[in-house]
Amino acid sequence: MTLRIAEIFGPTIQGEGALIGEPTVFVRAGGCDYRCSWCDSLHAVDSAYRHTWTPMSDAEIWDEVLRLSGGQALTVSLSGGNPAIQDFAPLIARGRAAGYRFACETQGSVSRPWFGDLDTLVLSPKPPSSGESVDWAAFAACVKAGQTARQMVMKIVIFDEADYDWAKDAHARHPDLPLYLQPGNPDVDPESPVDPQDLADRLEWLTERAMTDGWFTPRILPQLHVLIWGNKRGV
Ligand SMILES: C[S@@+](CC[C@H](N)C(=O)[O-])C[C@H]1O[C@@H](n2cnc3c(N)ncnc32)[C@H](O)[C@@H]1O
Ligand SMILES: Nc1nc2[nH]cc(C(=O)O)c2c(=O)[nH]1
Ligand code: SF4
Ligand SMILES: [Mg+2]
Q: Cβ(82) to ligand 1 under 6 A?
């Protein structure tokens, strides 16, 4: 059995959400059941890039994680694309037996039994600006599957007022999930630089929006890796 892998990179720091700053090796799976208008990882989503994805066995992925981490147990983040459309159970079992921790980023459209074996499950339902719409029954199945994960959180990207209002509704549906908000990056072309002032302005807007609203539940964070490296891949 092989998995479609777009890239494996690191160690770097986790740039987003609950594990921000954590030394991490990323395993980015190829293929996604969504097409978010602002996706920053199209090279792992669009089938035009399919020829760049490598079929890899669990053992081959694991060897690469070992090589990149120098054999030091750290956190492996499964991202994509949507990693949940493939079976990562054997890789997680292998890595955990060696003392590594596993996180997974997924939109919550497809649930997997292995969600329960993770250290951190990040569910990132998509707001209106994405152009996608959430199947809340499928999302609830993901929450159920993740019940035995050590930690499970919700992370929502916010571009505008409609996304902000939507995030409140999403939180009300799953109030027990710790909530993280991050401003959207509108500029995702890997060839073009990001505008740091624009990103700062978006973070300021989101922070002030929540504070003046008296909504003190979410943690609000930038994409740290974008501030450091812009849209560069493999960091
Ligand atoms: C590329 S996705 C891959 C995992 C999964 N498909 C998902 O969306 O959760 C990883 C994270 O990046 C976020 N993301 C994608 N494009 C973004 C953008 N333009 N600005 C801010 N966050 C973005 C997603 O919302 C998700 O939380
Ligand atoms: N440093 C770093 N942090 C990240 N957090 C989430 C990422 C992702 O694309 O899933 C990501 C990424 O690609 N790089
Ligand atoms: S669900 Fe994630 S990987 Fe898929 S298109 Fe949306 S942001 Fe990109
Ligand atoms: Mg990313």
A: yes
Indicate if ligand 1 lies below 6 Å from the C-beta of 49: no
CA atoms of 126 and 213, how far apart (whole Å): 22
d(CA 115, CA 14): 19
List the domain boundaries for the chain. 3-229
What is the spatial distance between Cα 208 and Cα 213, in angstroms, rounded to a whole number? 8
Instruction: Count the residues in the chain.
Output: 235
Among residues 147, 145, 62, 149, the alpha carbon closest in space to that of 97 is found at 62
Q: What is the CA radius of gyration of the chain?
A: 17
> ipTM of this model?
0.98
Q: Is 203 helix (H, G, I), strand (E, B) or coil?
A: helix
Supply the pTM of this predicted model. Answer: 0.98
176: tokens are 């027990």
Topology at the third CATH level for domain 3-229: TIM Barrel (3.20.20)
> If you ran DSSP here, which 8-state letter would residue 77 be given?
E
Considering the chain, what is the average pLDDT of its residues? Answer: 98
Q: Quick: pLDDT tens for 175-195.
A: 999 999 999 999 999 999 999
Atom of ligand 2 nearest to the CA of 233: 13
| Model pLDDT, residue 1 | 86
233 lines ligand 2 (CB under 6 A): no
